[in-house]
Amino acid sequence: MKPDDLQALLEQVASGDTSVQTAQSQLAKLPFEDLGFARVDHHRHVRTGSPEVIYGPGKTAEQIASIVDAFFRTGQTAIVTRLDAEKAAAAQALLVEAKAAAQYEPVPRLLVAGEPLKAQGQGTIAVVCAGTSDLPVAEEAARTAELLGNTVERYTDVGVAGIHRLFAVKDKLQAASVLIVVAGMEGALPSVVKGLVPSPVVAVPTSVGFGASFGGISALLSMLNSCAPGMTAVNIDNGFGAGYAASLINRVGLQS
Amino acid sequence: MKPDDLQALLEQVASGDTSVQTAQSQLAKLPFEDLGFARVDHHRHVRTGSPEVIYGPGKTAEQIASIVDAFFRTGQTAIVTRLDAEKAAAAQALLVEAKAAAQYEPVPRLLVAGEPLKAQGQGTIAVVCAGTSDLPVAEEAARTAELLGNTVERYTDVGVAGIHRLFAVKDKLQAASVLIVVAGMEGALPSVVKGLVPSPVVAVPTSVGFGASFGGISALLSMLNSCAPGMTAVNIDNGFGAGYAASLINRVGLQS
Amino acid sequence: MKPDDLQALLEQVASGDTSVQTAQSQLAKLPFEDLGFARVDHHRHVRTGSPEVIYGPGKTAEQIASIVDAFFRTGQTAIVTRLDAEKAAAAQALLVEAKAAAQYEPVPRLLVAGEPLKAQGQGTIAVVCAGTSDLPVAEEAARTAELLGNTVERYTDVGVAGIHRLFAVKDKLQAASVLIVVAGMEGALPSVVKGLVPSPVVAVPTSVGFGASFGGISALLSMLNSCAPGMTAVNIDNGFGAGYAASLINRVGLQS
Amino acid sequence: MKPDDLQALLEQVASGDTSVQTAQSQLAKLPFEDLGFARVDHHRHVRTGSPEVIYGPGKTAEQIASIVDAFFRTGQTAIVTRLDAEKAAAAQALLVEAKAAAQYEPVPRLLVAGEPLKAQGQGTIAVVCAGTSDLPVAEEAARTAELLGNTVERYTDVGVAGIHRLFAVKDKLQAASVLIVVAGMEGALPSVVKGLVPSPVVAVPTSVGFGASFGGISALLSMLNSCAPGMTAVNIDNGFGAGYAASLINRVGLQS
Amino acid sequence: MKPDDLQALLEQVASGDTSVQTAQSQLAKLPFEDLGFARVDHHRHVRTGSPEVIYGPGKTAEQIASIVDAFFRTGQTAIVTRLDAEKAAAAQALLVEAKAAAQYEPVPRLLVAGEPLKAQGQGTIAVVCAGTSDLPVAEEAARTAELLGNTVERYTDVGVAGIHRLFAVKDKLQAASVLIVVAGMEGALPSVVKGLVPSPVVAVPTSVGFGASFGGISALLSMLNSCAPGMTAVNIDNGFGAGYAASLINRVGLQS
Amino acid sequence: MKPDDLQALLEQVASGDTSVQTAQSQLAKLPFEDLGFARVDHHRHVRTGSPEVIYGPGKTAEQIASIVDAFFRTGQTAIVTRLDAEKAAAAQALLVEAKAAAQYEPVPRLLVAGEPLKAQGQGTIAVVCAGTSDLPVAEEAARTAELLGNTVERYTDVGVAGIHRLFAVKDKLQAASVLIVVAGMEGALPSVVKGLVPSPVVAVPTSVGFGASFGGISALLSMLNSCAPGMTAVNIDNGFGAGYAASLINRVGLQS
Amino acid sequence: MKPDDLQALLEQVASGDTSVQTAQSQLAKLPFEDLGFARVDHHRHVRTGSPEVIYGPGKTAEQIASIVDAFFRTGQTAIVTRLDAEKAAAAQALLVEAKAAAQYEPVPRLLVAGEPLKAQGQGTIAVVCAGTSDLPVAEEAARTAELLGNTVERYTDVGVAGIHRLFAVKDKLQAASVLIVVAGMEGALPSVVKGLVPSPVVAVPTSVGFGASFGGISALLSMLNSCAPGMTAVNIDNGFGAGYAASLINRVGLQS
Amino acid sequence: MKPDDLQALLEQVASGDTSVQTAQSQLAKLPFEDLGFARVDHHRHVRTGSPEVIYGPGKTAEQIASIVDAFFRTGQTAIVTRLDAEKAAAAQALLVEAKAAAQYEPVPRLLVAGEPLKAQGQGTIAVVCAGTSDLPVAEEAARTAELLGNTVERYTDVGVAGIHRLFAVKDKLQAASVLIVVAGMEGALPSVVKGLVPSPVVAVPTSVGFGASFGGISALLSMLNSCAPGMTAVNIDNGFGAGYAASLINRVGLQS
Fold it and tell me: How far apart are CA B101 and CA B68, in angstroms?
């Protein structure tokens, strides 16, 4: 049940077009549906303005298919994150109602069932990426933001070791309303970008690197300790989280 | 030089009211002034929409006074962060031009010279705080956001151990356009709050705690690993950074 | 040899129904039996009130089968933990006396030979689980508690990101005599639950998560630093340990 | 307001001896009282069966005195933890209503206002301590348990380096209904004790040690990795938390 | 070249039975032989009293075979450590001179070419092991000590959770001249053993455990922080290092 | 475009032999070429005096082939690092223009297309290696330095446990103009070498070791904490970075 | 009670010179004496061959004085470690029986009451020290070994940065029966020394250093990962532990 | 004794102007002088081309004065590092021969006795500094390089948050023969600088920052993981080490 549906229902109750009893039964599934192994949060969309997202790892294909179907049945879009291709195929085969609607995107490792949200955000979200190796995380952020109804522009391979590549797109970056900056290794790119632009920056450390990069800790610490204020950070490799947060930020001041 | 001033100057040049030579000499200090030990970034306000902020630790009172005066001379507001009371008093005594204008606020440990920005943000920024011991960091966030031109509401001591205290203010939290949630120890509060509200949350871990809180690492990790999407984090005890980022977020969609 | 058997034997000695010599030979295996590579602790049940539990990793199927048989021969229940399906099958094939009695449970990865203990605990143990991905650990805790003679109730997928799901079962949680709360990622659930219930909570961090969850460290630290007193923690992914401890707690005040 | 008081009030309402309006005004403070900087949780005692405990560090003496008075005014016992002697004296001087009742105990660093709870626990709680240097933490645990209505026995300086000292008190340890075992350095004592007793053990690592003890991390890890099941752990130096948890455990099976 | 050989050669030079020139050519390989990728240290046995040991990981089977042959050719015993079965077989197939003499021992993962040293140590070295899962490391220690000429006794599965198993062998442990104590998880066994015996203890942490055992860090820290003086530690899983050090310790006071 | 080519072009423009328009079109690709997923930095050679190096991990074979070709087309040498044999073969098969020129070197895991730089460095770079297991990293450093135009000498297996092997080559080490010293485990070799030579030492920690070597952290810390001044360090296993830095150092004072 | 005293007493019982009852009362204090806050282990000397040592930190001067007196009263030598000068003076003033006998040594921070043990060790213990800043820890080791009856030789400031200083004393080091090697910073010295000598080496990391020495972790890891077998390590700054262990090692093969 | 002196002496021996006996006595102090607590390395200057440097912390003022005098007596320059003002004054008062010559520099915390080396390096060493708070470390680097005979240029407060400040000095940075780049917090500056310049960069992390900067770890990791090759790193806050290494680098290709 999406926010608009809820509002319509309540207005019908208020106007007498729908009896309280009928409304009650329609709302019965609120706030969640118990699948046994999962309690599907049908209320989240109403409460937070964004669809439920299912964390893929540690769930079986059967569990994923059941949860996706439960959302799809109630007219909601479901997004499964961090899903490898093999499990995605198995889940797709098991889907019942959401079957035709479910698309798997291999680079950002997302399974999506239902329509993307209508464009809601203002301006554009720029997704900036330090190196080609960071692309999968950047793409997870970019696709998430697009699925949540935002216009996204991508700037790839503009790391600080050849900073003129970054400066060549400076004007475009300054025009973005929110920026997501993705970097591994020393994670310096978000600090440099934030020094150049007036908008908020969501920094995403990646696990790209070796040795003392410690699976992304080096990049994460750089982003937390940035001397350029106005930047916030998400977890290592959390492209989805960055895209989701940037989408919320891009709607501030709207009708939310 | 504030953005409005720059725009006015350039329009005068365009209209012929100011000669190019005069404009050139006024802009001569851009992009920075070299004090010997510091290069004051007069251009930052133009470039990023926010005043320069001076990181207090490791600087002498003399250095702080010089930098504050340099900003004040050019009509800009200067904010010094993480300044203890003793060094603040010494710096205030040394100030020349900014002398009368400089106010020290002991709880958030900020020294401010110049006028706060005019209200720019849309809606309100809610600053939510897990416990009384987290108050100084929360206040640093709240005051920063206020100085940068935002309306701020404070919700103190609503930690998860007595969650009904949080639920009593749920409606107000849901009405905020951005939330800053401050917590030490296990740092669970931001996740719980984000589960309740539709707006973006900036999470601030504090060093409140002992033993395995490891000076705030426990709270920081909780916030980075939150299962509630739409939250981003700043460094431990970085109230200023959270207030600054929330201010930028609160202006998304405006004329910035 | 279970505690009842020992008491009976000693009473027979006291009453003269059994000679000291006979008792001595029956007790000869106490306190342990040396299998060469392992010293089977037949005395543990008498001493601690619970059966010996065999830690599966690092042992060969042959070693596991020998140890299980040694317990089974003396009328004791044996539980092997953290055993993958392949090694379990190999061990089952090698069992001699315990063969028919040995059951493998794949989700909690337990091999059990002998009868579960008779119901001993008072009230119920509630096993609460933050997300579907945490289920295997939660199930290891729940089954352990059941095998040790307790009534267990399960509450799955009630994480803090949709806290109304948790509140829907609040009354049941408040009625439990002990609670086991299982969570990965930021590990906030036990703090929230403990704030709601009067009974002791055993918190179990899981390795569910990625990046800065550091294999469960984030969740573990949250639980150790909880602001809600009355919670204690076990090792990451240690469902067995939590079930065992909860079982002991649930018997406090009984005939122990 | 203690649980008995609440029950009495509600029974008076049920019998008509108290009007709903009167009850309503008496219950008006529920669930908390807003002191501005703190929201006092008057409901906690009803909800969790134990009094609110105030975490001392990071609070001013003024804040502590206000909170203690707020509890005292409503007939509740207040316990302030981790309070150094100097701040305790300052707070005591500022107390208004709770003045005479407030006692400071320097070894466990507790400030207590109001009467200890009536004996509620069954059997005894044994507090076992590895070395003399661990005494302050052990005493914090012991006094907490006593204040919460339990009978406590102390066993000091029975570390594993001279294990015969521990064995000399083995029978008494086996008779306890719950054990709190406190150790720094290598933190081996709880494992050894748990191997000897049938009751649950709450392990408390201390920061006693130097070099690679890393402020208690070594002891904490030992306790989390114990090969003796039935043990759970609390945070480093968290004597209060252990005493509180042990008290809850000691009431399992009672009228809770 | 072993120490006895060197002494004999020098005495022949002194007595004139061997010319300086002849001795010179025999000693020409001292102190090492350059194989291109390795410099074989033929002098080590003379200098340190023990044969060279080759660290297996990271070396190809070809490199291992060449080094073993180089030692074997000069009459020295070569020991390769941490060698998996597959690479051992490949190396054995490639050996030329040392072919027949090379034995692979799968549990301690040692490849040995040449004769073990004659018994040199005084008394016995006791190898004590906390659990069956620790056996491979314990066996690496035991076999190393045996190959270096010591009498070794093994005590397996005597962990602290059932401490009576340890006490049953207390007299034998007290009779050993050196003890190697191997334990994973919380690593408490060496502290308990050292509290019981007068001889030096070499503690070996193992990576047995899960979660917060952090691959042996927990056990290692326990051993470094032991409250029982007279214990020293080696690296995690370093059974070889412990056996080697114990062997040197067992020869102190002899003619070395 | 190499530095010489740029200088020639500009001189032709200055002399009128090349029109500005022609020069402009030739320089059009500066400073980079956008391949969509990567921005090839054709300017780097001009700017930094060394060819671009492509970090292999996380890139597909297709991406690597495209980038290598882009460099090769403009007459530049391309080096791909940390490339495993399988992906190298796939990339080589996909190369178009650079096909014949691309060589893969399996030990240092480098793919090179184009000619090595002409000898530029002064004196020799000595690559010193503690053990045979460190050879791949040492070879990566040595080959990098050779490809960048330096004379390299290799000294293998001269670890500190048999320090006479190191002393045998002391004179040669003292004659080198720069030294790269590679070591895993305790990482002591660079300190000892630096104590013996007058030239700068670049230290490379390797991940060789086990247990508390923590994947090279132990060696890295040794090198950062060296008591022998004049040493600097690179990341764990970063042979390429050491070779590159040593090459730059070896050209200091030349015409660069 | 020292071992000789015990043997004498038992022989008197055997010969009838002492009645069982008399012996019993004399032995009554065994195995420990309960001072309330401490259980003095009078049996340790008999059991382990060395006097009890009291860990100073965290104990009050009163507690230290009581424990020292308890040992002194029964004819035993007491050693207090890690005692600062101020607390030592306070404890000395409070001593009753041990008053005259108690000596405080400020560099190694030891308080000693009673006579040092008679020379027991064979050969000499060499204490080798990397730098002048490591002297206090080295002296703690040296004095401990001397108090326990060993001949000690000191070699100071022979760090690896000027390795010829170490080589100048090589012959003396090779003649020692046990070596204690003390180093901070990169902690390379023990590896180099062990490569030169045939005897066992006890390595002591110190907290000397800054930045990434992390209070001695760097040196500790170097010692645990040494490529020179035959070395074992103790805790950071644990000079006492090293001296104690070396003393036990130096008595192996004697009448212990 | 400086290298020139040694060469002169040996030439006099070769020409017969100095007898072997005389030379022998002059060289007698080589390679070191034993002060009891320190072995002064008079040979270092000859061996490594740079004067001995004394690490200040952990040494008493008496020890420092003795060592400085020992160097000064033999005509060598002595530099004491990391010396606070108080101990410096005490040491200066105790100096005998070096008294007049010893200068203390408070910002870089260096005590220098003797003349700086004659200018030896080629070109200039640029010392670049991210913020005013990093100045003391930068100054330690700059002064060290100057004392060792190099021309140094300083660029202060050019951090990445206002990158135009850095670009304003780009040409000068590109002209330097070696660069030292000093930064705390996220430590991004060295990567950006290295991307702009052709010369080798020595990166110095500082402990400037708070929270998750972990005393400089964040900056250190950034520098080790830099994506800009040609950079090497030294320990946190090790300005001296950077200045020393840069000085050696600046002499490569000279007569060393």
Answer: 11
